[in-house]
Each structure stands twice: as C-alpha cells, then as structure tokens.
C-alpha cells in the first residue's frame, strides 16, 4: 500500500513540470487530468500490489484485502449494507483472532523446539569435553611412545653394530684358534 502511494506521488511530481509549461487556458484541462478518481486509485493499487499469487503466504497465513468496504453514499451506511459491513468486520476480526491464535501456537512450538535444541547442544558439549580430554591424553601418550620408539631404534642400531664387530672378532679368534691347534698337531 505504501509503495503505491510513493509511486503515485512520483508520477504526480513528474507531471507537474509539464503542467506548468502549458499556458493558462490549457492548464485547467491538464490539471483536471491529474486528479485521480477512487476507481483509478484502486486500479493503480491493484497494478502495483500485483496478485495474491505473487505474494506467497508465510506459514499458511491467509492474505485478505485490507481496503475498507465502501458504504452507499445516500444512507451513510446505517441501513441496507450496514449489516453486511458489520458482518464483514466481524469476519475479519474472527480471521484476525484465528491468525493470532495460529501464530501464538506456532511461537510456542518454536520456543519449545528451541529449548530442546539448546538442551541437546549442552548435552553434546558436555559429552564432547570428556572425549576431547581423552583424545588429548591419547595424543600425549602417542607422542611419548613415538619418542621412546625412536630411542629404542637408536639402541637397536648401536647393538647391531656391536654384534657385527663381535662376530668379526669371534671369526678372527676362531681362525687364530684353528691355526694354533693345527700348528700343535703338526
């Protein structure tokens, strides 16, 4: 509704310079063309607002026409259409109450859902912190064991080198012993 008013005003502002340029005899004719009748205004509102199909309702909320109903000018709306106007108002009030109740119910459901999500998040955080502590301890133990493994591997390499030296020494001694025994036998 507000957009339609702004649009109509901008159209009027665009027409004003053109009107002022014309001479006074044509001015009255041009000025009368700028006045909008209520029918033209409602047509402009409809064109600007579009159709109900273009405005999808959120959460199943129904969209209804917010323009007031016009009463007949002769009787002032007290008889004839007066009953239908009050019935229309009552229908709109019932619809507004129904929509308010629906939205209140949905709000309560959303609050309950949000509370359960907060609870679930807290439970996840509570379960996660012991798991993180265990993981940190396991990572520290892994690092410690890897250091110990590298030290053991270094000792193993050193022990293998000593073993090779000992085997070479044993072979030399075995060779000397064999040579000495052969010399005594001869």
TrEMBL record:
Q: Quote the biased-composition stretches of kind Gly residues, using this chain's numbering.
A: 74-85
Region ranges (Disordered): 1-32, 67-89
Q: What is this protein called?
A: Uncharacterized protein
